[in-house]
Amino acid sequence: MPELPEVEALTGILAERAVGREIDRVLPVAVSVLKTYDPPLTALEGRTVTAARRHGKFLDLATDGPHLVVHLARAGWLRWKDGLPEAPPRPGKGPLALRLVLAGPERSGFDLTEAGSRKGLAVYVVRSPEEVPGIARLGPDPLDGSLTPEAFAGLLRGVRHRIKGVLRDQSVIAGIGNAYSDEILHTAKMSPYRLASDLGEEEIAALYEAMDTTLRSAVERSRGLAAGDLKAEKRSGMRVHGRAGQPCPVCGDTVREVSFRDSALQYCPTCQTGGKPLADRRMSRLLK
Q1: Contact present, 61 and 48 (Cβ < 8 Å)
Q2: Pair type for strands 109-114 and 23-28
Q3: CA distance 64 to 119
Q4: CA distance 99 to 194
Q5: What predicted TM-score, i.e. pTM, was given to this entire model?
Q6: 205: how many CB neighbours lie within 10 A of its CB?
Q7: According to the model, what pLDDT value does residue 184 have?
Q8: What is the SS3 assignment for 61?
Q9: What pLDDT was estimated at residue 285?
Q10: What is the CA 79 to chain-centroid distance, rounded?
């Protein structure tokens, strides 16, 4: 799933290549991705792109009229193309969901695609980004200067939920998903099962530092890359996420995994849980 660093990089690509350009056509291919109908998609046509911004995991393409807001969900992606076909795309079973063509003879623009059968890609055309429910409920952004260590500690105070889930809760902190929460907790040497309310001041400070350095490092690694290279960069930068069964790059212990119904977390027992494997109920059932 694209998270804050990848969406930040895509925002940079659009800021560089689309801002100041006029939108010629917006062509929906999978109508199910469109979550709003007023204003219509056609209201974007003829408008000039004025800015590209990120709100958590949401990508916001602002014009001198409506905003085009995109949430890439689990398997969505933005593919920039310098020369789009003149023939309109045909609806079908392929991954293409929406195409935006900028004015000009080169027909540059982007395709929104989504792989797999579980569809979650969402497109909104709104007068203001705050009209999107997911944006309206976002917590502070980890890269925003307003999220100070003191403010971060205040968000965790009294929260009796596992810290892994708290980091992923978009209404608490915007932009962190499954992958980077694993990486942040590994850097902080903290069990994903710790309750947020049980963390001491030093642990909270270490977690804040791990969050800041992990995300800023990922953003820097992604800066300037083509959209097609961002996924590979994300995978190559992971230390525990997606690396179950491989040695931890810090201590050499085997990275373990806990599976859930629709996701999994990865962690290092030596670095994070005092050498003790976390209970994996799904695996326990399989072994019975």
Answers
A1: no
A2: unpaired
A3: 30
A4: 44
A5: 0.93
A6: 15
A7: 98
A8: strand
A9: 38
A10: 16
Nearest to 244 by CA among 207, 280, 213: 280
Please, what is the Cα angle at 270 between 265 and 275, to 5 degrees?
Answer: 95
The residues facing 68 across adjacent strands are 61, 125
Distance in angstroms (rounded) separating the CA atoms of residues 36 and 282: 38
Concatenating the DSSP letter of every residue in 30-51 gives SGGGB---SS-GGGGTTPBEEE
Helices (H), the chain: 4-17, 133-136, 149-156, 163-168, 178-187, 201-222, 230-237, 269-272, 281-287
- Rounded average pLDDT per 10-residue block, the chain, 288 residues: 94 96 96 94 98 98 98 94 90 90 94 88 97 97 93 94 97 97 98 96 97 96 87 92 96 95 92 93 43
Q: With contact defined as beta carbons under 8 Å apart, do 111 and 96 qualify?
A: yes
8 A C-beta contact, residue 201 and residue 153? yes
Q: Cα separation of 44 and 248, whole Å?
A: 48
Tell me how long the chain is: 288
Residue located via tokens 């056609």: 42
H helix or E strand, kind and range, residue 55 = strand 49-55
Please provide residue 131's backbone torsions phi and psi, each rounded to the nearest 5 degrees: -75, -15
pLDDT value of residue 76: 94
- From first CA to last CA, the distance across the chain in angstroms is 32
Radius of gyration (C-alpha) of the chain in whole angstroms: 20
DSSP-assigned beta bridge partners for residue 257: 266
Nearest Cα to Cα of residue 269 among 250, 286, 249, 254:
254
